[in-house]
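Collaborator request, handled under Task 6.
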Amino acid sequence: LIVRVAASGVAFVKQAVNWIDTVTVVASCFEVFVLSQVGGGIGFVRLLRLLRVTKALRIVRVIRVFHQLRVLVGSLAATVGSLLWSMLFLAVVQSICAIMMTQSLAEFLADPDPGVPLELQATIHEYFGRWTQSMLTLHQLTLAPAAWGSIGRILIFNVSPLYAVFFLVFGWCVTFAIVNVLSAIFLKQTLAAAAGDSDVAVIERMQRRARDIQRLRAIFSEGDKDGSGTLDWHEFVGMIQNPRVRAWLGVMELDVTDMSTVFSLLDDGDGRIEFEEFITGVMRCRGAARGVDVVALVSELRVVTAQVKAIKRGLPKGL
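C-alpha cells returned to the collaborator:
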C-alpha cells in the first residue's frame, strides 16, 4: 500500500477503491497488532476484505464480452431515480384507492345483512378489512390485472354493482395507462443510457466495422476470379454487376452507378485494386466519411484559391 501511495501520489486518493484498500489495511493492522494482544477481534474486518472483491468488477470495463452486462448495469443505475418516483406515485394512488375501498366496505363488514354468509364476510375482510389488506389487494391488481376477476366479482355480485365502476376505472387508469407510461419511461432511459455509454458505443462501432470488413472481404474474394488478390477493370465490372453485391454496397451507403468513377477512386493508379485499397476506398466513400472528405476538399480549394489570387496580383495588369 505504501508503494502504491508513493507511485500514484495525489491520484491515489481520487479513487474510491484505494480508500477501501486503505481502510482494510489499517483495520487489519489494528486487529493483528492491538486486539490480538488483548484476546479480542473485529469480525467486520473480514467482511471489509470482501469489498476488495469488487475490484474484480473493473475487468468488465476492459473485456468486450461483458459490454452487454455493462449496458444492463448502467441502464439499471440510470433508472434508479425514475424507479423511486414511480414507486412513490403508485404508492400514493394505491393508498388513496385503499382508503376509499376500506371506508366503503367498513359498514358492510361491521353490520352485514343477516343473509350474508360468514364465508363471504371473511373473504371480503381478507381483501379489504383493513387499510393494509386493501393496499396489498390493490398492489396485486396493479401487478396482476387478471386477479380482479376473483376479487371484483365478489364485490360486484354480492355487495353492490357500483363497484364495477371502481374496478373499471382502476384497471384502465392504473393497470393499463399508468403502468404502460412508466414502462415507456424506463425504456426511454434505458436506450438513452446505452447510447450515452462512450465505451459501449466504441465497442459497437468496432464490431460493426469488423462485420463490414468481413462482408467486403467476401465480396472481394467473389470478384477476384483469378485468385491474384487484386481486381482489374473486368473483374471489378463483373463484381459490381452482381445484384447481391450492389445490394450489399447500397446497404453500406456506397453508390456504384458510375463504375468507372468508383474504380478510379479505389485504384491508386496501377489499374488494379488490392484488398486494402478496396477497404480504404469504400470506407472513405460511405456515410460520414464523405462529409469529412468534402470538408477537406473545400479547405484545400480555399488554399488553392488564395494562392491563385496571390499569383494574379503579382502579374502585370495587362496580362
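The cover message to the collaborator said: "The two ends are 80 Å apart (CA to CA). The chain has a mean pLDDT of 77. Please let us know whether this matches your experimental observations."
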